[in-house]
Please model this.
Amino acid sequence: MKEYTIGQVIETLFPVGFLWKQHFYWRKAKFEDASELLKNVIKTRNPKNIDIKSFNGYKDYKDQHDSAIKISKKFSKCIKNKYLLPPCSPFDLFAITSKILQDSGAYHHFEASYESKVQPFDHLQSGVAAHQPEKVEYIKNSDIKEWVEFGKKWKKIWIFPLFNADLAIKNGDINAFIEKNIIFKNWLILLDSWNEPLFAQVKSEEAQPSWWKAAFALHAISDRASADVGFKAPDGTKNSKIEHTSPWCKLANLILLEFASPNVDPEDISNKSYVESLSFADRDTINVLPKSLTAQLGCTMRGLSHNLAALPPRGKIRVGWTCLRAKTALKRNPVFNLLVVPYPYSIRSRNFHPVDLSGKHGPRWGKFTLDVMPNDREDTEFIIFMQNLLLEANKQLTNIHAVVLPELAVSRRTAIRLTQTIMSQHSNVEFLCIGVREHMNKPGKMATRSNGAYLAFFNNGKKVQDFFHQKHHRWRVDESQINEYDLAPSLDPSRIWWEDLRVVNRCLPFIVIRNKWTVTSLICEDLARNDPARSVVEAIGPNLVISLLMDGPQITSRWSSRYATVLAEDPGSSVLSVSSFGLIERSNAMRQQRGLPHSNSFALWRDDTGITQEIELDPGNHAVAMSLIEYPISDYTFDGRRDNRSVSLRLKSVRQIKSKDHEKYPPWGSSTHS
Model:
């Protein structure tokens, strides 16, 4: 079987090469307002409509480009012109190096260097102890300094410095030019290895393939050139102060701005309003987005970059990124207050309704759904209840910045009503994260069942964007859970019951708030299963992960604590797991029968400090208000590069909240009639 080569990887990612008109598009983005041009590029992903002649400085750029091609041809005569120069975007170069380093396994053959070496044990010969196999290379501090400095230079210019190529040809100092431009130098090494196999079995006494370190260097440089990308929110005005010294920040902002439009129809919350890749690489192979935290444990590609994340093909899961503009007052306020409401407070066994059974000769499976239909009276009662909760919470904490309700808490209609209430009466709320249980029903049609998360983001009482993403795994209820929640009156314990859920749209949004924190949400099993959602959470490293559950007591011995620990350690995210009080009460009743302790813990908090905190609801209260504080942290890649822009969100305090004029809990849909 023919071996996969370096050249084939690059051709797969960029079948049309790098000499297409995206170069000129970025030239335009540097000097002019490119919003109209951007629309054509984003919609078609094919910038053939762009009129090159209209670009300022095109002739100057073309001359520089052609001169560099002449240099490259002297060293790589067999390569097509469209690949002779590296891509002008760090996002695209990052995609290439991530793919070849990951698939070849070359990335884990590098380590950070140390200033001094410990003397070997007496019983070992000094030469043997000091020997390191050639297949492992220590990255020198001088290498890191060179990569970081060149990455900083690339960040400030619209394309790597090839501007002296023509002068280099005239003066005959081509080698000096190549040696000085380390992007060009390392790219030529990759071209020289064009036909080499991607995977190389290297023996311990053999030297590394030359392209390994070249790819490693280009990966580090392109990552550093992308610093701050995705974290400065555009506002759509021509004089907006989003034009940083980096054209790549501006490019990312232009792309983000194109997608950052609020939905017109309040009932349509499925509109995609986020960017799925900053790279023009083939999206069925790899996608590239910004990232927040770098993995500090293990030896993976996640631990090799600070600013960009390499993500799986869109067929596996579509990942989105957007950045929301923050109010100036909020930027100065380090405290972030969440109101966490464990609704519903009561669940009947009849709410678990069988809908389908397997045949005689098949497995003993069944499907179930949660039979909870909303009605206007109960919706109104719930909205009044939430209004009172917010008022009481504001009395204690001055401002509530976010509201969280667990999995399957409300209908879509109720979620939208709550959104409208917050816009009209609670201008300090920045976002909602709510578990919703069915789609909106259109006139003449029944509402279809769903299980997803609705996230709405606000600025000064106006909705900026909202998102809906579905759960990625069905809930499987077996005999042990049927017994734990006392569901035998509804579900046959001798069968395995699967949630009646259509897993058809796998997507996950990551949202930047306050220009520095990244937030996302997971739904129950998505926290426990590595594929597809948790793997991208680990790659991007959001500062806050909100996991919406329908589960029993949230105590440190349960599964949610174990999996929250995984994300808190790698990549270092703070994780809030929230369950409804309804199933907790059912579980407590059965626990007491077995002599186990009663627990009112409905939420768990875990962050990078290594401590898991149970959040209890005291009798007579309805919710808790959690105050979070940001702490600056330093992230290191495993080869020793440092980043000081990261922050950790840590729990400062928890306060009990009781809704005024509500001695009883509001009903859950029609649960009182079950």
Notes: Residues 21-61, 123-130, 236-244, 262-271 have pLDDT under 50 and may be disordered.
